[in-house]
Write a structure and sequence with these properties.
The strands form three sheets. The protein has a three-stranded antiparallel β-sheet, with helices on one face. A three-stranded antiparallel β-sheet has the order 4-5-8, with no helix packed on it. The radius of gyration is 33 Å and the shape is elongated. Helix 2 packs antiparallel against helix 3, helix 6 packs antiparallel against helix 7 and helix 7 packs antiparallel against helix 9. The protein is mainly alpha-helical and 383 residues long. It has 14 helices and eight strands. A hairpin with a 5-residue loop joins strand 1 and strand 2.
Length: 383
């Protein structure tokens, strides 16, 4: 009998019953299979219907095999990637950048394509289309970085088996803007009539802090007596997080910074640079004051991040080793710091030129101390 009701008495003396099926099925290849299962619908008719369903599945060779879920489209998985991966594992600024790249570039191109159908041919087509639209190779490579990460995560989550190779374009290293020594002096001088912005510009030029790190700086992070600061946090778009490297770092403060911060000291809040009510400044609030001050100084095209480049460039031009600059800037890789290597060319040339002199003695015009720039120059006045 394929359908029957199993009955028993429980420990409380109550009669219990379950409708079940018992099928002995012989496959075309002679293999025998026994199926004993409770019916999901506990009536005779329900059990009989379930028995017919199981027999049909056995004959179709689909019994016991779960129906494979279709691979999601790029558009559908992109939303899941942002919510369940990017927001969990990356910083708010990275999430914002990823969402922008998806919305304006990747989603319109790959949106309805299934993840397992995205191949190298499609990726090359994307690169060609974006270059034709006038985007720089650097921008396209940023898009490819997001695309590659999405596909790798999809593979890790077992949504796809194969992984197409995402080849970046060969692009020149991006140029950066920094102030010359005279420009830096003019910017500082032009800011003296505005105490908060003067202090912030002096700190930026002499510490190389990122914009978010400047906004996140608190008085408890500073030891003005010893001349050191601990960079513990960053504020980007109102979100308080760790610095970009993911860890804090300690940096020295030179006399110029110490004097500027002592003169600027306020009691509005723990935030060093803040609004009138003590709350942290926003990205928008710090943009225009710098534009106003740079115009007053007769300087064109300088943003807050360029002051960080200025700090690193001035150190390189004064012969500070790139490894020391890397630590001060908080770069996780020396490769990022290498962009400043060419600025130390003059220092290196002068260093080699000392070999032309008898016993390496300095010339009358060259003080002996200048032969070997020391790390203590970080604590010297840069502006």
């Amino acid at each position: 009998m394929s359908v029957r009701k199993r009955e028993w008495t429980d420990k409380h003396g109550r009669k219990q019953g379950k409708w079940m099926i018992h099928i002995e099925y012989t496959h075309p290849d002679g293999r025998r299979q026994s199926v004993r299962k409770n019916s999901p619908v506990q009536t005779r008719r329900g059990a009989e219907a379930y028995e017919r369903q199981v027999r049909a599945e056995l004959q179709a060779r689909t019994y016991g095999k779960e129906e494979a879920k279709p691979t999601p489209t790029f558009e559908k998985f992109a939303d899941e990637f942002v919510e369940n991966y990017a927001k969990v594992n990356t910083k708010a600024s990275s999430v914002r950048s990823t969402k922008s790249i998806l919305e304006h570039h990747l989603r319109p191109f790959f949106g309805r394509t299934r993840l397992d159908a995205v191949g190298m041919r499609d990726i090359e087509g994307y690169k060609r289309a974006k270059l034709k639209a006038g985007l720089s190779k650097k921008s396209v490579n940023n898009h490819l970085g997001v695309l590659g990460k999405i596909l790798r995560v999809a593979q890790e989550w077992q949504l796809i088996t194969g992984l197409p190779k995402v080849k970046p374009l060969k692009a020149p290293k991006p140029e950066f803007r920094f102030l010359g020594f005279d420009e830096a002096d003019r910017l500082v001088t032009a800011s003296k009539s505005e105490p908060q912005w003067h202090a912030m510009i002096v700190v930026a030029l002499n510490t190389g802090l990122r914009v978010g790190e400047l906004l996140g700086l608190q008085w408890d992070d500073l030891d003005l007596r010893r001349g050191v600061a601990v960079v513990r946090r960053s504020i980007v778009e109102g979100v308080v997080d760790t610095p970009k490297s993911g860890k804090s770092r300690t940096i020295p403060l030179n006399d110029t910074v110490v004097r500027a911060l002592k003169a600027y000291k306020h009691l509005r809040s723990q935030q060093v640079f803040c609004q009138d009510d003590g709350s942290p400044l926003t990205d928008g609030q710090i943009k225009w004051p710098l534009y106003r001050i740079r115009h007053r100084a007769g300087i064109v095209g300088v943003a807050w991040h360029d002051l960080r480049h200025t700090f690193a460039s001035h150190l390189a031009m004064r012969g500070i080793p790139l490894k020391s600059i890397q630590e001060l800037l908080g770069h996780s890789s020396i490769e990022t710091t290498m962009r400043y290597a060419h600025l130390s060319a003059v220092v290196l040339r002068d260093a080699v030129a000392t070999l032309d002199r008898p016993n390496g003695t300095p010339t009358a015009q060259e003080p002996a101390a200048s032969r070997e720039p020391a790390l203590s120059m970080v604590s010297a006045t840069l502006i």
